[in-house]
Structure formats: structure tokens, C-alpha cells
Design brief:
It catalyses: RX + glutathione = an S-substituted glutathione + a halide anion + H(+). 53% of the residues lie in helices and 7% in strands. The chain has 11 helices and 4 strands. The protein has a 4-stranded mixed β-sheet with strand order 2-1-3-4, with helices on one face. The radius of gyration is 18 Å and the shape is globular. It starts with a strand and ends with a helix.
Length: 247
Amino acid sequence: MQPIKVHVIPAGPNPWKPVLILEELGVPYELNSFSFEAVKQKPFIDINPNGRAPAIEDPNTGLTLWETGAIILYIIEQYDTKKILSYDSLKEKHLSQQWLAFQISGQGPYFGQAGWFNALHPEKLPSAIERYNNELKRILGVLDGALDGQQWLVPGDKMTYADLAFTVWNDRIDALIFCAPDKKFEGFPNVQVWHERMTSRPAWKKIMDTRAQLMDEQGLQPNGMPKGINSFQEYEAMMKAKAAGTP
């Protein structure tokens, strides 16, 4: 089997979702890592005209694909033949798809907007910050309730791709809403135990080590801030200067 090429921006959460699935399944892959500035430029927009990472190119089937949900479902259908991370049974199969859809439509967008308005938007908008911080916590509440009394989102005896799809955004909550790392799951104990169960696995540790290496190569710290920036205040000042065209 030839390795699947995965195009990633290492700082972004979404590219690591399919990478984690591939790693858990033991499917060979290679990473094409590039900076955020290149995502809306050629040659990448010839692969994904939407200008977002990730995208994959699978030489085994000749398929090029973008959008994480589509990529994950493709990987599962094509390569999880032993049903390591999925089910064949009607109920469990569709519940897995349901939770993946919730991650794509709920967790990802709301968590992303929380991060944007807390950290990146040039103007502080308290109403927007409050809205998306509350939405982030609402999503955690949905997950916490679903996990009450069970280990995984889909009732059964194993972790699925649907569980794994939530890990990367959940892992960054402290950076999104500026809370202490040990407080990011405060009030959501089921989510915390579930998240720790997945991030203690070798596949997670391996891809996060890879991410750290790629971030270092791009002059970025693990939290996404450029090297030499030691606080959010410094980062905010840098972003303001950049927006104003000040060197």
C-alpha cells in the first residue's frame, strides 16, 4: 500500500483529525506541511479550491479529497476493513455518523469562533466573546450528557472515529477561551475522563510530537504563537501592528 498524502497546516486543529484516524488504523501516510499564508495560493488551491486544510491525495485509488468529514468517512470505508474504529451494524453505524456530523457542524465551528473572537479578532467584542464561549460550554454539556454512564459516544465496546474526531479541538480549549489548562473541562467530568482516555494513547502522542516538530520548523510555539511572543498581550500587539502595516 502506498502512503496517503495529507496536506496540513500544523497550527490548525482540523488537519490532525484525519491524521489521528490514519495513525490509529496503521494506514501509511505522509505529511505535506506548509504555512497558513500558502493555504489560499497555488499550488494548494488546485487541490482544494476552498483554500482550507486538510486535503488528501490517495495514490491507491487516485482520489483527491477535502473537508475533514468526507476524508474521515472515506478513510473508514476504504481502510477500516477490520472495523477497528467503526461498526457494520445499522444502529451503531449511523450513530457514529451522527456524532461526526455534530463535530463538524457544532464543535468545530463554535470552538473556532470562540478562538477567533477571544484571540484573533482585531476588535474586542464582548457580546461575541460571550456568545461563543457559552456555545463552547453548551457543546461540552451535550457531550458530557451523552457520555454519562458510558465510555464512548456510541454505546458499545470500543472507541470509534466519532470519538477521535473531537479530540483536537477539545485539547485546545484553554487556548481558545484563555482558561488554565486544568480548568478547561471544569464542570464536565465525563468529557474530561473520555478525553484523557483518548489522548493517553500512543497514536495521539505520536501525532502531537509530529505537530510540535512541524510547528518548530515554522517558527511557531506549540500554542500557535510565533517564537519570541511570550504572552497574549504581546501577540495582540503584534497582530494590531500587522493590521496597521507597522513593521
